[in-house]
Amino acid sequence: MVIAIWNLAKNQKKLNVQNMQRAMIRGFHPDPSICRVGSDYYLVTSTFEYFPGIALFHSRDLVNWKQIVNCITRPGQLDYAKFKDSGGVWAPTIRCYKGRFYVTAAIDGMGNMIMHTDDINGEWSAPVWTDFGGIDPSICFDGDEAYYCTNDFTNGHEAIVLAKIDPDTGVRKEERREIWNGTGGGWLESPHVYHIGDYYYILAAEGGTNYTHMETAARSKNIYGPYEADPYNPVLTNRNDTTKQIQCAGHADLIDDENGNWWMVHLGTRSVLKSKTPLGRETFLTPVEWKKGWPVAVNRRAKLENELDRIVCRTKEENAQNKNAYGQIETERNIHIGNSFNFKPNFSISSWEPQWLWLREPDITLYERKSNALILHPSAFDFKAPAQPCFVGICQPDIDCHFQTTFTFEPKDGEEGGMLLYLSSNFYYRICKRKQKGKTQLAVIRKLDDVEVTDYVKELESTESPITIYINASAAGYHITWKTEDEALEDAGTYSLRFLCTEIENRCFTGTIIGIYAADHTIIQRKTSEQDKKQNLQYDIKKQETLKTQRSSSSMTITNFEASVC
Fold first, then answer.
1. Could you give all domains of the chain from N- to C-terminal order, each with its CATH number?
2. Is the torsion defined by CA of 140, 142, 148, 152 positive or negative?
């Protein structure tokens, strides 16, 4: 990373802006951070209350990305029980030093941590905790020293603070120092420090992760400052241009490629329905130019020249050619290939694909794989912390996408199972086979804060026949159809996207998760003690053991699950 600024402009390669503007990790993948090791790029994003934690992607060209692992994968590696809606794991940073990879992150209610691994495709260490306050931690390696920095509120104002640290133990080596106060935009967050040429540079977000979001920069010849603000600030923002589809741009990380070109990965949102965002915050890539020794996003704007160009279905032959970028043969189910996305899990193997997400750490006994099928055991119907519902899904990858699943299920009274379109514990759609008062039905149910609305009900003639549910998402809404082996395709209606947009719930930082679930409404899983009413954090152990004996003998068998963008 130490490159003379005066040689950068001279050696800068021509930027393929049109192609790279379309490169992104789509769907709910916010707070990106990136590092390069030779010709390999590694990128991490936030996962909030979802398990496994911290999605890790790999690329060799900044266009084609593959999710290879997650950093938090083991039971007990991190306590998920307290994580409420939009809580959990925030703002990771990834760096590599002497062959060892490090990830930092803020953990809601717990503080700031560091993890490491010597095998990027393997497991990560248990977290070590630092005594840094604030959020959005980052780490910078310079010479033989590691520096940890966060945002914080110190001396009566927002600031970025920094100190030397032992990255393997989290032990601070010196007093924290306040190094920069930002430009006054408020919500000074996501600081990163880089040593490039003769200067140390800071990139930080200001304005809050919303429509006033922006990225600002500063530099100094000493890592401790004083720092001079970039005269081109904000170096990236769309806050004053509501005509651009990408909004909320910020929380950036800086990277150079092998050809001397520079880029920012950053979060942003794509708006539909008059500034509504069903996908949450996504990862974008924007080219960077150097102006008189200052890094500035090209035109200081994030943009998509042609959204339709990016949403393209590629042939299997084209996908196969792109797989060669990873140097190995992979099935399409694990690949984010440029403009295409196909996900079809293999239920015949014991391992879970890294794209799968559970709400908090799952009760793995609720899930079985056998005979090329996934079997779900209905659990208590509860999505609020600290519940562990029987629900697993993936991020909605784009506005225009398709989901389907095929399952068999003979529910008892009070049981249901099917597909779930989930934003938070207060806002979701359920498309389910259920049994109520002796009648087996296919139903579509909306959860709107404290209100449940049943929008569609069809009594089923056959209770044993497999059911296939289809969901076609577009700006017009979620169009739901379904069929059984014995009946023709049925239209269950089209349902609005706006109930699953982040703007509908205050401080909702995630996007829509679409997946499969099984629930038993007759099981009461929450504590009722006075202590629980005050804290609502942990299960009563005795009651939990009782629940296991009360678990329904019913099971829902999933024989197919597919997701695609086209």
1. 5-311 (2.115.10.20), 346-565 (2.60.120.200)
2. negative
